[in-house]
Each structure stands twice: as structure tokens, then as C-alpha cells.
Amino acid sequence: MAGRSCPVSCVLVRATGVSCLAVLLCCLLAVQDVAGQKRRSARQGAGASSQEFARLAAQAAEAREAGRIDEAIEFYQKAVRLRPRWDEGWWYLATLLYDRDRYAEAARAFERAAALHPQAGIAWAMLGLCEFQLRQYDAAFAHIQRGRELGLVQNEELLRVLKYHEALLFLLKGDFETALQRLDVLANQGLNTEELIMALGLALLRIPILPSQLDPTSRDRELIRRLGWAELQAAQKNFTDAQREYERIAAEYAKTPNVQYAYGRYLVSRRDDDKALAAFKREIENSPQNGLARLQIAYIKLKNREPAEGIPFAEEAVRLNPRDPLAHYILGRLLFDLGQTARAIESLETARTLAPQEPKIYFALARAYARANRRADAEQAREMFLKLNKAVEEAENRGLKRADAIQEEPEKAPERSQ
Questions:
Q1: Where would one find the signal peptide in this protein (predicted)?
Q2: How far, in Å, CA of 347 to CA of 352, rounded?
């Protein structure tokens, strides 16, 4: 076992702070994904391949197990040239190259391993991690997502690494809510690194860059770190420390864009609606074009059964972000609660057009159609809700669900229209 290379050592040690022992265990679990192919590959080599291939394969394994990584890489490269469909060889070559920070070569090797076994999630995931190191972020995002969707054979350490990098990619793409959701989960699980803190702060301030891309001399660096630390405390349930720091930041950076919004978001999570409303209103004063702050106010009014007070904020949110399905959805629900069913249906149908895979929109539409005595439409919306909600629940159970700026309680199926 000693000397065996780990495919995720750089990621785990440098980015997430997992111990070297955990890295080794992660590697051994990862290798199990291709272990089923090992015996078949060996038998095929003995019977169908040349003696040269058998010699190279044996030398590669001996060098790898002895920790002579560069020598093992050379033997594996020669062996896979002789037998291009040797899946075990491509896997070990890829992991060894990754361990040597030779990411471009590792990516090509993982790509070959994935092509040989397209249902092996770990190969796609490792390809994505290589592409992340190569700054090929769109490809990295697609392949990490594909790997997670296919599954990673209960490899918790590798899954943790992938969640972390996936969160960074959501941050880079500007999906700040999903980035925060993923980062908060990792923080809650005990991850506590400087890079994580900076990523949390960047997401809260809605700055779409990676922590590594932040200028060390940036005047915002202290604010980013303080916000990230406050959110880290909140995610780890240290609410007294989180509250104290959020309050200090909100006072010291009272006019900085997105600070009051971040504070309001925290207060919503603590169910302090009055203070949250005040924070969101201060954000609007600081940033008059901030539609999200208006949407948060509108939703608080919706929760508190004050639709008349919420509608102006939702309408402003729609005006500022006409392509935001969440804004149309919240407006539709407020209108429904106020008894303006026709307008509610219009807003909810717009939301459906913008987000046709979002189940809660169909839930709201089913209720609105039923009130309007549109029974067939209500039943169709109800069936779509049930279908889509099942898919969302499955994605949530696997940690793949994306987050919205507003987190609602799960809906039950609306009653059938009578």
C-alpha cells in the first residue's frame, strides 16, 4: 500500500485541509471503482497481448507500488500505447500524472478512462478536477456535475472535494445562492480553511471570482474575510459570534453595496423578520437597482400574510429583473392571496415560461386555476408539480439541487379541483 498515488491529494490537502491519511483512503476507495476490471484486464493481457505488454504492465505496477512515480508513469505510457483499451492502465496513468501536477496530460488520460467506462462517475469527476487546475472552468463544471450525477461509489472524501470545487464554480458563474448553499454545508461539516472563508465572503458580496483571483492588495479583502468568517460561524451554529460580527460589519460598512443584503439574509435565516426588513430597506437605499432586496421584502410580506404591502416591492423586482422567474412567482402568489386571481395567473404563467422545470410554480398555478374554475388546467398543473417535485427531491437527496435566493418549505401536492 505504501507509495500508492492518490488522485485527489493536491485538492484535498491544499484546498480542504483533509489529512494525508484521508487522502490515501480516498485513493484506495477510488481505485475500487476500476478494481472489477483489473482481473479481466490481467487475464486478457496474459492471453491476447504481447509479452512486451505483460512486461511493461508488471514493471509499471512494481514501480507504482514502490513509490517510483515518474518511472511508473513512463511504463504506463508505453503500455497503453501498446494496448489503448487497457482501462486499468489509463486509470493509474491518469492518477499518477495528477499527483505530479501534470494536469493537461492527466486530463487526457482521464478522458480516455471515461470513454472506456462512460458510466464511471469518478473518471468524469477527476477529469473535471484536472480541468479546474487548467482553468478550463466551463468544462470542469460540466464534468464534475456529470461525475456527481453518475455517482461516486460512496466515496465521501472525494465527494467532499468535488462539492468544494463545484461551489467555487457556481461562485465563478454568478450563481451565488447555490455557491453559498454548498459552502455552508461544507462549513457545517467542519471544513474551516482560509480559502473557504474568502469564498463565503465573495459569495455574500456577490463578486463572481475565485478566492485565488482576489488581488491581495484589494481594499475589500478585509471586508470579504470578515463576512466570510461571520457566515462560517453561522453555518457551524455559532450564532452568538455570527450575530455579533454581522452587526459590526453592517455598522462599519453601512453604505457598501450588498453588505446590508448579506446581513438581512442572515437575519431571515434566524427568523428575525423585523430586523431583516430594515436591513433590506437600507440595501435599497444604498443600491436603488437591487431587485433581490425588494424580492426578500415581498416574500417576508407574503409569509406574514400582508400581500397588499408586498405587491409594490414584487412589482419593482419584476421591473428591475423582468427575466427573473422568482420575481414573477412571488408577485403571482401575492396577487393570489390578495384575491386578484387573473393577474396572479398571468404572473405565474410568465414564471412558468421562464422556469419550466420549477415545481413550486405549478403548485401555485394549480391553486390559481382551481380558483378560476379552470379544472383541466388545474389538474394538468397538479400532475406536473408531482412529476417535477419527485425529480427535485431526488436531486436534493443527492446534494444536486440548486438554491434560490428565497428558501421555502417543501410543498405538498395541491388538492384536486372538484
A1: none
A2: 9
Grid coordinates in use for 42?
A: 490481467
Q: Tell me, what's the pLDDT at 287?
A: 97
Alpha-carbon gap, residue 180 to 388, rounded angstroms: 24
Cell of 154: 460512496
d(CA 64, CA 76): 10
Residue found by looking up cell 471503482 in the block: 33
Domains and CATH numbers, the chain: 1-169 (1.25.40.10), 174-206+216-288 (1.25.40)
In the chain, what is the straight-line distance between the N-terminal and C-terminal CA atoms, in Å? 67
Question: Nearest-CA neighbor of 72 among 49, 45, 102, 104?
Answer: 102
Nearest to 192 by CA among 20, 413, 16: 16
Angstrom distance (rounded) from CA 81 to CA 418: 69
Q: Is 344 exposed, middle or buried (0-12, 13-18, 19+ CB in 10 A)?
A: buried
Q: Do 8 and 30 form a contact (C-beta atoms < 8 A)?
A: yes
Query: Quick one: pLDDT band at residue 21, thresholds 50, 70, 90?
Result: very low
Q: Which one, of 148, 172, 143, 146, lies nearest residue 159 by Cα?
A: 148
For the entire predicted model, the pTM comes to 0.86
**DSSP, res 406:** S
Sign for the CA dihedral angle at 109, 112, 118, 120 comes to: negative
Q: Give the three cell numbers for residue 142.
A: 460540466
